[in-house]
User: Fold these one by one.
Assistant:
Number 1:
Amino acid sequence: MERFHFESARLRVRFGTGSFAHLPEEVERLGATRVLLLTTPQQAALADRAQELLGPSAVARFTGAAMHTPVEVTAQAMALVEAERVDGVVALGGGSTIGLGKAIALRTALPHLVVPTTYAGSEVTPILGQTEGGRKTTLRDLRVQPNAVLYDVDLTLTLPPAASATSGLNAIAHAIEALYAPDGNPLTALMAEEGIRGLAAALPRIVADPEDRPARAEALYGAWLCGLCLGQVGMALHHKLCHTLGGSFGLPHAETHSVVLPHAVAYNSVATEAMARLLRALGAEGDPALAVHALAVRLGAPTSLRALGMAEEDIARAAEIAASNPYPNPRPIARAPIEALLRRAWEGAPPVP
Ligand code: NAD
C-alpha cells in the first residue's frame, strides 16, 4: 500500500426517514437554546416546520439565503444573530442555505446544524464559497464545518426530478475527482466508488418517480459519501472549470457540473485506476467519459453550455482563466485542449475519449 494521510473532523450524522422529528434533540446536543433558522425564500415552509418542532428555542428566522453566499445577504443574517442573541444556527436546505450557515459560523464560531435537502454535499465539508462585488472566492476552514447533520430522506421527495438529476451529478463529480486526487487515501476511494454506485443506481429511478423512497434514500446516502470525499481531498480540472464558469460567467451551479463532467472525465482518462473504479461504480463497460455522458442523457440533464446561456466568445476567455492558475490534475492543464474541451461542452457534443 502506498503512503497516505488521513484526517477527520468531528461530525455527528443522523440519517433516516422521518429523522427531522429529532431536530429538538439534536439542537439540544449542540447546547443551543436560542436558534436562528435559515432557508431560501422557496423553502420558508421548512422553517415553519422547524419552528413548530423547536418552539420557543427558535428565536429567529432568516429566509433570504441565495446562491453563492453573497456577503450582503450574510450581513443581513448577521444583524439577526446579534439582535436576537442567537447561540446556534440551523440551516435547512441545499448548498445555498448551507453556505449562509457556514458564513455565519465563520464570523461567530456558533454551533451549527444542517438539514440538507439536495445532494450537493456541502454539509460535510469545511469549504465555503462567498461572493463579493461579483467575485467568488473559496476558503477551506474547519470553523465552517457544520457540527451535526440531520439527513431526512422525506425532505428530499420534493426536490424536482431535473434538480435531483443535476444535484446528483454534482455529487458524482466530487467523487470522480476524489478518485484521482493526489491527496486521496484508501477510505476516500471506497467512499467515492460507493457514492457513485448509489447515486448512479438511484437517480434514474428518482427521475422516473420522485417519490420513490428507497431510491431517495440511496441517493442521499450516496450524496453524503460524495460530500465526504469533497471535504477530504483537493478537487481538480472539473471543479476549477465549473468554478470559472459559475464565478466569472454566471452559469448555474449544478447544471454546469452536469454539462462539464463527461468532458472533464475524458480529459483525465489518463488516470487509469480511477477510470476503472468509475466504470465499476457505474456498472458500465467501455469508455468512462461516454458512460458518464450516457447517464446524464438518461437523466435528461443539460449537456450544452450554450443552452445554459454561455456566449460563444466567452469560451476562449474561460479557457484562459481555467488554465492560468496551475493545480494538480492527472493530465497537465494546457490552454488549447481546455479550449477544445469547452467548445465541445458548449456545443453539446459528446466527450471525445
Ligand atoms: P440550492 O441550495 O441553490 O437550491 C436550489 C433551489 O432548490 C433553491 O430554491 C432551494 O430552495 C430549492 N430546494 C432545495 N432543496 C429542495 C427540496 N428538497 N425541495 C424543493 N426545493 C428544494 O442548490 P444546491 O445545488 O444544493 O447548492 C448550490 C450552491 O451550493 C452553490 O453556491 C455551490 O457553490 C454550493 N456548494 C458548496 C459546496 C461546499 O462544500 N462548500 C458543495 C456543493 C455546493
Number 2:
Amino acid sequence: MITEWTTKLRYLPYKEWPKQQIVDIKQKISKSHWRLGYHIQPSTGLLNDPNGFSYFNGQWHLFYQSFPYGPVHGLKNWTHLTSDDLVKWQDHGPLLLPGDKQDSHGAYSGSAIPVEDKLFLMYTGNVRDKDWVRHPKQDGAWLDSQNKLKKIATPLIDEPKAGFTDHFRDPQILKHDGIYYCLIGARKKDDTGHVLVYQADHVTGPWQYKTELKFTNQPMGYMIECPNLVFVDGQPVLIFCPQGISQSVLDHKNIYPNAYVVGKDFDWENFQFIEPSIIQNLDDGFDVYATEALNAPDGRALIVSWVGLPDTTYPSDIEGWANCYSLVKELHLEDNQLYQLPVVENDKLIKKELTTSEITPQSKISINLDEGKRGQVYVKTNRNEELQIRLDAVNGKILVDRTNAGESFATDYGTKRESEVSKGSINVELYLDNTVFELFINGGQKVLTGRMFPQGQQFFVESENVQLQKFQLEKIY
Ligand code: FRU
C-alpha cells in the first residue's frame, strides 16, 4: 500500500510499476459504491482533462488524461476512448504514453484533427531537466485507421515564445482556408495569461508564431489553460481556464474557473474577436474544468468537460480512482449567452418513468416551477444525506447545496452554488449518476455540475411546490 505519493513515485516510468499495482486498484474499485453508470470515468487512478475530441474513421474519439497508478497527478498518458453515439464509450486503455525525450514527464493536454486518412494529435510534452526545470514541447502523433499510434520524435514547437514562461501548453489545432493554426495557453514573464497562435501549412510543421489571440480587453489573471476556439451558430466562442483572474472581472467560486467569451464575429487575419462579450462562467457548479470543444462534421458544436478540479482531492481517492467527465453537450447561442444541453443521443438512456419517491442511482429528474413561485427538491439517501435544490422564480435564482450530501470535500470553496436565470417559470433537467449531478436549467441557459459522495446507496426524491417527472436511466458501465 502506498502511503505517500512522493515525486519519485508519481514520475516512476510505467515499466517500473509492478503489474500488481493495477490489479490491486481494480480490486478496490470493484467494491466501490461511488462508481458511475453512464459517465466516463477512469478505469483506474486519476482522470483529468479531455483531449483529442474528434470524429475520425466513422467513430467519435476522445482521450482522457490519466495517471493510472493512483488517484493523484503523476506521469500522464492519454487513454483512448471511442464511441458510435457520444453516449457509450469503449475504453481501449493508455495509448499516447509518456517517457520519450519529447514527453519524458507526461503527455499533457492537446487536441486532434483528421488529416487525410489519419488523425493527427497535437499535445504538450511535459519535459523536466535534472534540476526539475520544465521545458514544455508541443508534440505531434498520428493515429491510423487501425487505432495504432505513432509519435513524432521531434517537437513541433520546441520552446515557449520569447518573453513567456515555461507555462506554455494545451495546443488546440484548427484548420481554416487550408492553413493549420494552433492556440496555446501561456503565462507571460510579467505574470499575465495569454493565448498564442501559431500557424503551419502542414500539421507536421514548420510551425511559426503568428499572433496573440485578441478576445478580450479584460485582465485574465496570470495563466490561461486549455483554450478552445469553437464556432457556435456562426459566432466565435473561446472556452478557457484563466488562473488568478480577479473576482471583479469574473465572479467565481471554485479554485479556478472554466470561462467563456463570445464574439459577434471573428477576424481570421488578426485572430481577433469582433465585439467580444464580457467573460462569463461556463458552469455555475462545483467541479467543471478543462472543457474541450469540437466543431463536429455533422454541424454541431460539442463540448465535454472534466468534472474535477486542479489541486483538489476527492473522497473516491480512497477507492483508487478520481474524477469523471460530463455528458457530451451541444452548444447554441442566444443573445451572446451560451446554451448547453446533453446531446440528444442521451435520450436513449431513458428506460422508464418512475412513480415512487425512490429513484435509481441513474435517474433523470425533470423539475418545473411556475412563474412567481418558490420550490424545493431534495435528493435524499437512506443514510439521511441530501442534496438540496432551491428554486426561486420570484428572483430568478437556483441554489444547490451539497453541505449534507455525503462526505465533505473542497469545503474551503463553500458547499453551495447559485445560478441566476431569467425571470419566469423555471425548468431544470437533473441528470443524476450516483455521485455526479448535472443540472441543465431553462433549456441549458445555465448549467450547474458537481460531485457528491453519499454513504447511502438508495436514493429518494422529495419536493415542495414543483412539478416533477422522474425517469430511470440505463446503467451502461
Ligand atoms: C489542466 C492542466 C493542463 C495540462 C494538464 C496536465 O487541468 O493543468 O494545463 O496540460 O492539466 O495534466
